[in-house]
């Protein structure tokens, strides 16, 4: 685990360096300092609106508390940022259907594989469902993870109706008393109407056939895509009713700040961060740890 955290810190070192450069040994937080701090936040991929919101709150709290020095400002800013990542988290409840959504290439399949192993290690029974029937490769790739984790996979032919695969998977999960059914979905955003119809149909099948199951819709976002991730979050939240987020590829060139506007937009918590391609490279999200890695 320490290793995974080190990778998160490594991955986010660019943003951290920006932030450290602003501090530059200064003692008093003057206007120049506050301006540079705003810039550093924007450069972290946070976007202007979120950065300005955080800075306005910082000025307000610093004034109220009579804080004038740079370290004092930093401490307050960190508190504010941790608070911005706070979103209501629903407790785990079994059985659960987890619909995993996101555009192709963001790391959906990899995240599903990692999650299967993670929950298995916690003593849960898992089943995977290949509802991305659009690409044959998607089901193939999921099959590799299913084998690796030794969990059953429900799949149909390429081009089959995704809701039909979900129907079969739900019947099978119910019959087997499976705790967690993880559904891989198609990540086509170019036709939002299609995507929306497909999602609605899958949701209807789950609600009708498996009303006792909790439904979690997990949006996977590639952190290296920056503000694009926010656009994806908006689109998928409309189409799929996203209620949780996983942020991947934080071991690469990601700047990491995009998490703030995403949480603000979706009002949904980040549950996991991905820091590599290996099966152990998924970490439960911890806001304080994340803000520390980003800025400290
Ligand atoms: P999908 O199309 O959304 O299912 O994406 P995949 O799971 O196939 O992942 C796309 C690529 O990203 C693969 O090469 C993965 O190994 C890689 N990948 C996924 N998660 C991570 C991560 O956290 N870090 C890194 N470095 N690569 C990742």
Beta-strand fraction estimate: 5-15%
Q: Identify the CATH class of the largest domain.
A: Alpha Beta
How many domains? The number is: 2
What's the N-to-C terminus distance? 19 Å
Full CATH superfamily name of the largest domain: P-loop containing nucleotide triphosphate hydrolases
**How large is the radius of gyration?**
21 Å
CATH architectural name of the largest domain: 3-Layer(aba) Sandwich
H and E order: HHHHHEHEHEHEHEHEHEEH
| Poorly predicted sequence stretches spanning 5 or more consecutive residues | none
Number of separate helices: 12
List ligands, each type once.
guanosine-5'-diphosphate
Mean pLDDT: 90
Secondary structure class reads alpha/beta
- How would you describe the shape? elongated
Largest sheet at a glance?
A: 8 strands, mixed
Adjacency order of strands in the biggest sheet: 3-2-4-1-5-6-7-8
Number of strands: 8
CATH topology assignment of the largest domain: Rossmann fold
């Amino acid at each position: 685990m320490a290793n995974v955290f080190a990778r998160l810190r490594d991955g986010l070192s660019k943003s951290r360096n920006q932030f450290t450069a602003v501090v530059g040994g200064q003692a008093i937080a003057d206007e120049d300092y506050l301006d540079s701090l705003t810039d550093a936040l924007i450069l972290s991929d946070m976007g202007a609106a979120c950065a300005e919101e955080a800075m306005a709150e910082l000025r307000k709290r610093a004034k109220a508390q009579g804080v004038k020095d740079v370290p004092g400002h930093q401490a307050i800013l960190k508190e504010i940022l941790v608070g911005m990542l706070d979103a209501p988290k629903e407790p785990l409840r079994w059985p659960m259907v987890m619909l995993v959504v996101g555009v192709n290439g963001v790391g959906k399949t990899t995240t599903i594989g990692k999650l299967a192993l993670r929950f298995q290690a916690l003593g849960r029974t898992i089943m995977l469902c290949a509802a991305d029937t659009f690409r044959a490769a998607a089901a193939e790739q999921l099959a590799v993870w299913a084998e690796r984790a030794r969990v059953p996979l429900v799949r149909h032919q390429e081009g089959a109706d995704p809701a039909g695969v979900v129907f079969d998977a739900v019947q099978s999960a119910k019959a087997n008393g499976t705790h967690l059914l993880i559904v891989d979905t198609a990540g086509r955003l170019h036709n939002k109407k299609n995507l929306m119809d497909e999602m609605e149909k899958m949701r209807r099948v789950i609600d009708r056939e498996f009303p006792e199951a909790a439904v979690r819709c997990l949006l996977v976002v590639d952190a290296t895509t920056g503000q694009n991730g926010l656009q994806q979050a908006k689109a998928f939240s409309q189409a799929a009713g996203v209620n949780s987020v996983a942020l991947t590829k934080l071991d690469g060139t990601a700047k990491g700040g995009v998490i703030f506007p995403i949480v603000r937009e979706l009002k949904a918590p980040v549950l996991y961060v991905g820091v590599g391609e290996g099966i152990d490279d998924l970490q439960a999200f911890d806001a304080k740890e994340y803000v520390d890695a980003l800025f400290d």
